[in-house]
Specification:
The structure is a homodimer. Chain A is an alpha+beta fold.
Chain lengths: ~325, ~325
């Protein structure tokens, strides 16, 4: 569905502000809360928190993060799930979300309804209320920015720093080919993130959003480089399909396509890997793969290693 | 300054993502914090909070909230101050902010620098770190959404509900004519909001952003209507100037222009008003004016009363 319409009666402009906000409350249903804990006051009120808290913000923008092939519900779901993936990457759980919309008056009301219903369904699934927001008019625009607030699930949040030379590199799920549908239908790895944060051997954690070849550099300890075994990279079916189309190696797609929303972590080089992996397998059906380790930066490149130097992830603002 | 340029070398597109983010860190300086408490991890980490917390989000959009007459620094300052005004309206103080930008690749780097420097100056003035954000590309766009997190300054946050029939209506500062400059140069009433929230006689509080004639309806108790004395409305010089130009009464401008970012509150009808007003005057140079009270809805309109029925505030999405 195209988000915009030339038929004014079908547009949000025909509704006006007050009726639109009433409709939004209806679309959100119990995914929001009564004021002042939800929509309707100057701010939304959040509870105190004994735990460390986290905050992240990520948008979806028409023609950048989705196009007419995506259903509006998928777009609403994607917006929240992208942010949930960032929380998962710290070992945090969500508390509340606020949404800022910048939209043209010619936005189709039916599109917006689908978007909010998709957002609400995802909000209920992950138990994160949409407590507030803002709608502003911007000609021809369709930009939705969601800010997600969360808190540590356990004793700590896990950051990107903390990896050491010799640490193993693990990744969840399978990588690459996201454009074939995974970028809309992924599952944020929230419970996996909480579990990983509770393992003392996990030293650093992040999510893969711009592709492993780009994102992994945020985990690399000083004086080190990632040494990834090409045959260990979990290549998705999507990456294989794209590889068959464009004759590039499937592994290249896996490490550079982006929008995987999987977790990558550094596990102590002294960890009992067998025990770590079997504990994981008792908790999750999601695959967890050791793809290599951090080695000294002067370690020669060996046969069968992924040559990350030639690969890039998704570059913003190019 | 026009935010956009046709000269590619002057644009953010020429910088690319990595260098742009480095530059932003520099422009923010000590208005941000090192990761994971500031920019650079999957989320920003916030401290625990024993107090109730609040969250709000408001944007600035090119051609909607500002135009080429505004300096980029004024735009950055306005973005944060709009949100601070929402916190003031609950009696809260700021904890941290995150910023989502949707910008065209042809945005002038110098414009963005001015914007961030204005934001940083305001951030330091009100002691609220900019802890994170996101920059996404959207053709021809210049939308900046800021989410502000705060916490109760005292024992409570004050909501919009709580006013009763017979309560007095007070407003800070002067109203109207904001387009002549006040919409960029206002001071969010943070300390005033904290003080008002600490007064037990203050029953409801909000900020005036779309004009008193529209906003005041959020405070009206059920079965009541606001009875405002026309000669009591604090009319700004801006409102007087606009009135001289368009021959409308200055009071009409005062109650309907919007973007005042003043506070309006309901004070118990049983309060010792003289004591309340003199206590205010000991703390603030900002004017505080009793403009009327909430009366039963069937109270006849009296001479000298503002006829709010004919007036409207700023209507979004029209």
């Amino acid at each position: 569905m195209s988000p915009f319409t030339r038929n004014k009666t079908e547009s949000v402009g025909a509704l006006g502000e007050r009726r639109l906000i009433e409709k939004i409350r209806g679309w959100l249903g119990n995914a929001t809360l009564p004021a002042p804990y939800g929509i309707g006051d100057d701010c939304a009120v959040l509870p105190p928190s004994k735990k460390q808290q986290v905050v992240t913000v990520d948008p979806v923008i028409y023609r950048r993060h989705f196009d007419d092939r995506a259903t509006p519900a998928e777009v609403g779901a994607k917006l929240l799930k992208r942010n949930l993936s960032d929380l998962a990457a710290m070992g945090a759980v969500p508390t509340a979300a606020v949404l800022a919309l910048a939209i043209g008056a010619n936005l189709r009301t039916a599109w917006l309804e689908g978007f909010y219903r998709g957002l609400a369904t995802t909000s209920r699934r992950y138990r994160v209320p949409i407590v507030g927001g803002d709608i502003a008019q911007a000609e021809g625009a369709l930009t939705a920015s969601l800010t997600l607030i969360g808190r540590a699930a356990g004793k700590r949040v896990v950051t990107r720093s903390g990896a050491r030379i010799g640490d193993w590199i693990y990744v969840t799920g399978q990588l690459g080919g996201s454009l074939l549908g995974h970028h809309l239908r992924f599952t944020p790895r929230l419970s996996e993130g909480v579990w990983l944060a509770a393992q003392k051997d996990v030293r650093a954690l992040m999510d893969v959003s711009d592709g492993l070849a780009k994102d992994l550099y945020s985990l690399v300890p000083s004086g080190a480089r990632p040494q990834l075994r090409s045959d260990a990279i979990p290549v998705s079916r999507g990456a294989q399909k794209l590889a068959a189309r464009d004759q590039r190696p499937a592994v290249d797609h896996a490490v550079s396509d982006g929008e995987d929303y999987e977790l990558v972590c550094a596990v102590s080089g002294r960890a009992d890997r067998e025990r770590f992996e079997s504990a994981w397998a008792r908790h999750f059906r999601t695959r967890l793969t050791c793809i290599g380790r951090f080695v000294r930066i002067d370690t020669p490149v060996s046969a069968g290693e992924v040559n990350l130097g030639n690969l890039h992830g998704y570059e913003h603002l190019r």
